[in-house]
Amino acid sequence: MLELDIPLLCMLDYIKSSRHNVGGEYGICYNTPEHCISSDYLGIIYFTSGGQMERLHFNIDYHKSTQVLSYFAAKAGGQINKMKALKLVYFADRYHLRKYGRMITNDNYLAMEHGPVPSTTKDIAEATDYLDETIKAYSQGFVEPIGTLEIKAINSLDESVLSESDLEALIFSWDNFGHLNQFELRDLTHLYPEWFKIKDDLASVSCLPMNLLDFLKDPVCDVDKCYELNDEAKSIRSEQIAELAYIESLWRQDARCPT
Fold it and tell me: Max alpha carbon distance in the chain (Å)?
C-alpha cells in the first residue's frame, strides 16, 4: 500500500483557509452528473450544477506569498534579485504540490519568456497597482521593491503564517537552488515540463497560463524533480487536487445562496 505523507495539519490548513489554487486538465464525478468538475487551465475550475457551468477563480494566499518573498530576501542577506526570488518560489511550490498536494502560495502560474511566474506574487514583489488594496497594505509591511530588479525584506518573517510543511519546502528550495543566480535559475526552469510544453507558443504571446497538473510530471533531463513521485502517487495527487477543487466549489456555491 502506498503511504502518503500528507500531514493532517496540512489538510486542515486547506480546509480552514479555502484559498488554495487547483486546476489542470482533469475531470472527476461524484455519483451524479450534478457533481462534476473539469478544468481547462491553472486557477480556473468549472463546476456543473443542473447543467449550468460556473467559472470559479481560486484566490491566492497573499499572506503566504508575502512571507515567502520575505523568507528568500532574508536568506539572501535582506535583499534579493526579483527574478531569483520568483524562481525560488516556483521550486518551493512545485515541491510542496508534489509532496503534499497543494502549493504554498496558491498563485496562478504563467509561462513567460523567463520561465514560470507566480503572477500575483510577482505583483507583490513589484508593489504594482494591480494589487487589491488589502493585499498591498499587508505586503508592504514586509517587502518592498528596490528599483525594478530587487526586493528587500523590511520586517521580520511572520512564521505563524507558514505551516511546517511550507517551511520545509522553502528550506528545500533555498538549499538546492539558492546558490544559483537568476539567469541560471531561469535556464533551469525551462527544463521542466509545465513550461517546456508551451515554450513554442510563447513566440506569439507574452504569457500563457500553466497547467497545475503538469507540475506532477517529471522533467526529461537529469535535474531535481522537486520530490520523487511514482505513477501511483501522481494519480493520487491528481485526484486529491480535483477533490479539493470540488469541495471548494461547493463552499463557494453555498456562500452565494441566501440564508
Answer: 55
Contact yes or no for 232/17 (Cβ under 8 A): no
Q: What angle do CA 11, 65, 176 make, to 5 degrees?
A: 85
pLDDT, tens digit (0-9, with 9 covering 90-100), for 29-82: 333 233 333 333 334 444 443 333 333 345 689 999 999 999 999 999 999 999
The residues near 72 (Cβ < 8 Å, ≥ 6 apart) are 80, 84, 85, 88, 89, 170, 173, 174, 178
CB-based contact 95:84 (threshold 8 Å)? no
Half-sphere exposure of 4 (CA within 13 A, CB side): 16
Side chain identity at residue 137, one-letter code: A
CB 86 within 8 A of CB 122: yes
Side-chain-side CA neighbours of residue 223 (13 Å): 17
* The pairing of beta strand 150-153 with beta strand 79-81: antiparallel
Read off the amino acid at residue 21.
N
Strand-pairing partners, residue 44, are: 41, 57
Q: How far is CA 64 from CA 68, 129, 160, in A?
A: 6, 20, 10
Which DSSP string corresponds to 108-133?
PEEEETTEEEEHHHHHHHHT-TTS-H
Q: Is 33 left (phi over 0), alpha (psi -120 to 50) or beta?
A: alpha
